[in-house]
Design goal:
- With about 120 residues, the protein is α+β, with helices and mostly antiparallel strands.
- It contains two helices and eight strands, in the order H-E-H-E-E-E-E-E-E-E.
- A three-stranded mixed sheet has the order 2-1-8, with helices on one face. Strands 4-3-7 form a three-stranded antiparallel sheet, with no helix packed on it. Strands 5-6 form a two-stranded antiparallel ribbon.
- The longest helix has 19 residues.
- The chain has one domain: hypothetical protein PF0899 fold, CATH 3.30.2320.80.
Length: about 120
Amino acid sequence: MHEFSAASQLVDLVLAEAEKRKAKRVVEVNLIIGRLSFLNPEQVKFAYEILSKDTLLEGSKLNVQEKPPLVECPKCGYKGGIEVKDDPYFHLGIPLLRCPKCGGEVKIVEGREFIVKSIKIEV
């Protein structure tokens, strides 16, 4: 249900922007979802489709770009990606939040995003 809540907020935001610009309809929405947000892109798309019925968004295309995690290690200075293993039991990626160089704890720099990159409308 995490995805339904996120999709609901997305639909509300896009509708508000479309109405502000007096759009006839929304054609396309481009979204960035960080892998550490634990949102399943397919479930977000499914919820978006349901929630956009009978609105300016109905029939619009939702494009989702997944953003990989980026971490920083205060211990050794490593800055880069971490391994995210897909877990078939949970149907999502489980991050290994340890530095791949020294095994120390890391600070998450990127990967938790849920960002509307762009909205294409018809006026």
